[in-house]
């Protein structure tokens, strides 16, 4: 029942938000034949749907807490964690899109250029090449089958200032929400690890895929490269395990990276390569 509810709710929400924003823009040019408060009804409906589905997801999570799954690390080298489930569950503040135990990681090399420090006003944004995570190989965390792989969306500039973040949330974020799940997660890869466990890699670099749907991959094999597509403020990897291949209906599954564990927010870790990537 929950899966069906989630699947049906997503497109209805997008339609309601679309109607709301069309009305907002239309009022700048024409007088609509109804009171102003009526324009807010679609937004109220979309928010109500979000609250209902979030409550259902929370109850489902509390009633059936899944067991952690140990896999290899999806990267090599020195990285640090953001939005980690070691500090908060759900890690990104929501159970939606299978994100309950998701983690974001950014590259922190000991030598070479470091990632730019966020600024209040200037520079407004940075090019992706300024970040050591951009272009870093993303590796299969286990022997698996690729069930989804796409990398056609653009890698946008960083949102590394107050102005950039405001633009990200108030303009681009709204547009991506209306565009649906694939616009939120950007380019992404989903692997079937077997036994009902799936791994998702989000914000992949445009044009970097080394695999396609249906491919069999070995642990440590390169899948793609780290990018800055979708709802992303800087080049990073968003990684999660889940119990199904569909992000709209999947439930998050907790993970542990072999030899690393689950790094907490701000914690730096070094991941070692477990296997030689297969071309």
* Percentage beta strand: 15-25%
CATH fold-level topology of the largest domain: Glucose Permease (Domain IIA)
For CATH, the homologous superfamily of the largest domain is named as Glucose Permease (Domain IIA)
Give the CA-CA distance, first to last residue. Answer: 42 Å
Number of helical stretches of at least 4 residues:
4
Q: Strand count, sense and closure of the main sheet? A: 9 strands, antiparallel
Cα-atom radius of gyration: 20 Å
The sequence of SSEs as H and E is HHEEEEEHHEEEEEEEE
The CATH class label of the largest domain is Mainly Beta
Describe this entry's structure for a reader:
There is one protein chain. The chain is built from 4 helices and 13 strands. The chain has helices at residues 2-26, 41-63, 162-179, 181-185; strands at residues 69-71, 77-82, 103-107, 137-139, 144-150, 188-194, 197-202, 216-217, 222-225, 237-242, 252-253, 255-257, 268-271. Strands 2, 3, 5, 6, 7, 8, 10, 11 and 13 form a 9-stranded antiparallel sheet that branches. A hairpin with a 2-residue loop joins β6 and β7. The longest helix has 25 residues, at 2-26. The protein is globular. It starts with a helix and ends in an 8-residue tail after the last strand. Mean pLDDT is 85; it is low at 275-279.
